[in-house]
Amino acid sequence: MSDREQPYDPYIPSGNANDAGGSNNGQGGNQRTAALQAEIDSTVGIMRDNINKVSERGQRLDALQDKTDNLAVSAQGFRRGANRVRKQMWWKDMKMRICIIVGIILLLVVIIVPSVVATR
């Protein structure tokens, strides 16, 4: 009737024929429970480390996202500045070409007009 007095717990071994001695049953169960508790504590510790690592990874990803956004903004500003400089340089180049063409035309006029006038 001692089995009926205590509630059934599948994690506590019963006092059947599988036990080597009646007095060792409590110690063997305590050792097994302690070993299981140590394994559970180890697993909990590993899981806490994993959770901390995931949290740190999330923080690093957030920092990387912020840096990426800043870099995208900087790249857009650089692109605008580069286009502005390109247009300015194109206008400068066109002005220089126009000045050279006008200079050549004036030089030809200065050379050709007196020679045409002299031949008449």
From TrEMBL:
Keyword Coiled coil: yes
Compartment(s) where it occurs, according to its Swiss-Prot or TrEMBL record: Membrane
Signal peptide span: none
CC terms in the record's Gene Ontology section: endosome; plasma membrane
Keywords: Coiled coil, Membrane, Transmembrane, Transmembrane helix
Transmembrane segments annotated in the record for this chain: 96-117
InterPro entries on file: Synaptobrevin-like (IPR001388), Synaptobrevin/VAMP (IPR016444), V_SNARE_CC (IPR042855)
SUPFAM superfamilies: SNARE fusion complex
CDD domains: R-SNARE_Snc1
Region ranges (Disordered): 1-34
Superkingdom, natural source: Eukaryota
Domain V-SNARE coiled-coil homology residue range list: 32-92
Membrane topology category: Single-pass type IV membrane protein
ATP-binding is among the record's keywords: no
Alphabetical GO biological process terms: membrane organization; vesicle-mediated transport
Family: Belongs to the synaptobrevin family.
Protein name: Snare protein Snc2
Annotated source species: Eremomyces bilateralis CBS 781.70
